[in-house]
Design brief:
alpha+beta, four-stranded mixed sheet
Protein backbone atom coordinates (compact mmCIF):
# COMPACT_ATOMS: atom_id res chain seq x y z
CA UNK A 1 0.00 0.00 0.00
CA UNK A 2 1.19 3.50 -0.76
CA UNK A 3 0.60 4.90 2.73
CA UNK A 4 -2.79 6.38 1.89
CA UNK A 5 -6.11 4.76 2.74
CA UNK A 6 -7.62 3.38 -0.47
CA UNK A 7 -11.20 4.18 0.62
CA UNK A 8 -12.35 7.74 1.32
CA UNK A 9 -15.67 8.44 3.05
CA UNK A 10 -16.31 12.10 2.25
CA UNK A 11 -18.07 14.64 4.51
CA UNK A 12 -21.85 14.30 4.92
CA UNK A 13 -23.83 16.10 2.24
CA UNK A 14 -26.38 18.78 3.05
CA UNK A 15 -29.16 16.24 2.53
CA UNK A 16 -27.49 13.35 4.33
CA UNK A 17 -25.31 10.51 3.19
CA UNK A 18 -21.61 10.43 2.40
CA UNK A 19 -19.95 9.96 -0.96
CA UNK A 20 -17.55 7.00 -1.01
CA UNK A 21 -14.59 6.74 -3.35
CA UNK A 22 -11.72 4.34 -3.82
CA UNK A 23 -8.62 5.44 -5.67
CA UNK A 24 -10.60 8.27 -7.26
CA UNK A 25 -13.51 6.06 -8.43
CA UNK A 26 -16.96 6.75 -7.00
CA UNK A 27 -18.61 3.79 -5.29
CA UNK A 28 -21.83 5.64 -4.40
CA UNK A 29 -23.56 7.52 -1.63
CA UNK A 30 -23.67 5.72 1.72
CA UNK A 31 -26.43 6.48 4.22
CA UNK A 32 -25.31 3.84 6.73
CA UNK A 33 -22.46 1.48 7.56
CA UNK A 34 -24.47 -1.24 5.82
CA UNK A 35 -24.37 0.77 2.57
CA UNK A 36 -20.64 1.30 2.97
CA UNK A 37 -20.02 -2.42 3.59
CA UNK A 38 -22.07 -3.26 0.48
CA UNK A 39 -20.05 -0.85 -1.69
CA UNK A 40 -16.75 -2.20 -0.40
CA UNK A 41 -17.88 -5.77 -0.96
CA UNK A 42 -18.77 -4.96 -4.57
CA UNK A 43 -15.34 -3.37 -4.94
CA UNK A 44 -13.73 -6.67 -3.95
CA UNK A 45 -13.18 -6.28 -0.22
CA UNK A 46 -15.01 -9.32 1.23
CA UNK A 47 -14.44 -8.52 4.94
CA UNK A 48 -15.32 -4.84 4.70
CA UNK A 49 -16.96 -4.66 8.13
CA UNK A 50 -13.59 -5.55 9.66
CA UNK A 51 -11.78 -2.53 8.16
CA UNK A 52 -14.22 0.35 8.67
CA UNK A 53 -12.25 1.62 11.66
CA UNK A 54 -8.80 0.83 10.24
CA UNK A 55 -7.25 4.11 9.02
CA UNK A 56 -4.91 2.22 6.71
CA UNK A 57 -8.02 1.16 4.74
CA UNK A 58 -10.70 3.81 5.34
CA UNK A 59 -10.27 7.58 5.76
CA UNK A 60 -13.32 9.33 7.22
CA UNK A 61 -13.29 13.01 6.18
CA UNK A 62 -15.20 15.99 7.50
CA UNK A 63 -17.16 14.28 10.29
CA UNK A 64 -16.91 11.47 12.80
CA UNK A 65 -16.78 7.91 11.51
CA UNK A 66 -20.17 6.22 11.16
CA UNK A 67 -21.99 9.60 11.07
CA UNK A 68 -24.18 9.97 7.96
CA UNK A 69 -26.68 12.69 8.92
CA UNK A 70 -26.88 15.93 6.95
CA UNK A 71 -24.09 18.44 7.44
Amino acid sequence: MSGRAPVIVHPPSGTGGRRVTTRGESLGMAFSDEDLIEFLGRAGLPDAEDVLDDPSWVKWRGADAHHYEAA
